Amino acid sequence: MSLESRYKEELSTFLSRVGGDVQAVVLARRDGLPVAHISPGMDAKTVAALTALALGSLKRVGEELKIGSVRNFIAYYENRVLLAWPAKDLYVIAVASPDANLGLIMLELERLAKRLAGI
């Protein structure tokens, strides 16, 4: 099984564990290139690139304020919630409904990140 297939299998498992609250999940490199995704109706390249841009800005905030490096982030938008979680040298990005069970999604993102680190 190829590495991309293994990643997609893990992303699929994540989606099944969080129910229908997550509309897209993208595994991306820190430079903004997508590695694997399940993102019907959303452009994975755009999600990955813009999230990398946001992470870069948040990194600068941490440096300027001397509060450390950003580990993960959650951005609440009018119609969606964007979550980004580190997974070794990659990031898992999830796009969820605003009324989603964020506790469950964060729990499953942690678990997914650990599984991905072992691949």
Automatic annotation (TrEMBL):
InterPro entries: LAMTOR3 (IPR015019), Roadblock/LAMTOR2_dom (IPR004942). SUPFAM superfamilies: Roadblock/LC7 domain. One of its GO terms (biological process) is regulation of TOR signaling. It comes from the Archaea. Signal peptide: none annotated. Residues 8-97 form the Roadblock/LAMTOR2 domain. This is Distant relative of homeotic protein bithoraxoid. It comes from Pyrobaculum oguniense (strain DSM 13380 / JCM 10595 / TE7). The lineage of its organism: Archaea, Thermoproteota, Thermoprotei, Thermoproteales, Thermoproteaceae.
